[in-house]
Amino acid sequence: MTSQPPAVDLERADLVLWELARTGVAMVQLNRPDSLNALSPDMMAALWATLERLNDDPAVRVVVIAGHDRAFLASADIRSMQHRPLHDVLTSHTARFWFQLATLEVVLVAAVSGAAFGGGCELALACDLVVASETARFAQAEIKVGIMPGGGGTQRLARVIGKHRAMEMVLTGEPVDADEAHRLGLVNRVAPTDRWREEALNLAAKVPDGPPVAIRNAKRAVQQAEETTMSAGMAAEPVRSDVRNE
Fold first, then answer.
1. Do residues 44 and 97 lie in contact, with contact meaning Cβ atoms separated by under 8 Å?
2. Which residue among 84, 113, 122, 223 has its CA within the 20 to 30 Å range from the CA of 39?
């Protein structure tokens, strides 16, 4: 089965590129290298349009989101937020992007090299799996320009690495390197600088190539563990006889 390119706005199409890299695995390339892939509103729109269409493509079960060697995504659109009231920032259409990501059923893998600061760290946190190059650095750096992290950064980070380490990253804005991120549980795997994309694709390929129902339900159940009680989360798991993908 051949996937068709997402029908994104042609003015935005060059901001996000994609290809079916392996059976069932799409590679999405963030493509603003001159600005270190800063997450502008246009890039958010292009990325969401791409992910939404891949999510609905039966030929795709996993999407790898990659940046470039120097940066995964260096920041959100901080300049545009600095002089706006907090209420405007929180209720803008760009704020909805982060809630939309949580609705995707396809498995998301972040392939991170270089800087993943601000919105870059938040995008990695929003993914299901993270593979980092040895050069990767993660930071919630917003505090250094006088704003607080958004995009679920404070909430997801605390759930992943714990309150006190999250407080340190959020309140100081200082980065952690790939090895420290792996130790904290923020990263699944650390790869050599010349193999980070390949390692991300290798991990993505380990998601079984079969009926997608179990995979998508399993992803949803693990996500629910972050937001609910143990008993409610266990209720999201089927009994053994209901597991078949019919």
1. yes
2. 223
Q: What is the pLDDT of residues 76-89, one digit of tens each?
A: 645 555 555 544 54
Give CA–CA dist 98/127, Å, rounded: 11
Exactly one of 66, 122, 132, 141 is catalytic; which is it?
122
On the CB side of 99, CA atoms within 13 Å amount to 7
Closest CA to 142 of 82, 196, 91: 82
Active site residue 76: yes
122 is catalytic: yes
Cβ neighbour number for residue 206 with a 10 Å cutoff? 9
Instruction: Determine how β-strand 176-177 pairs with β-strand 137-139.
Output: antiparallel
Q: Could you tell me the two tokens for 144?
A: 């250094």
Give residue for tokens 């260096």.
74
For 89, list phi and psi in degrees, rounded to 5: -65, -45
Give how far Cα 13 sits from Cα of 10, 30, 180, 241, Å.
Answer: 5, 11, 35, 45
Instruction: Identify whether the C-beta of residue 13 lies closer than 8 Å to the C-beta of residue 43.
Output: no
| Active-site residue, 105 included | no
Answer yes or no: 227 catalytic: no
CA distance 82 to 100: 23
**Identity at 123, one-letter amino acid code:** L
Query: How far is it, in rounded angstroms, from Cα 65 to Cα 79?
Result: 24
- For 164-203, what is each residue's pLDDT tens digit? 999 999 999 999 999 999 999 999 999 999 999 999 999 9
Instruction: Note the pTM of the prediction, 2 decimals.
Output: 0.84
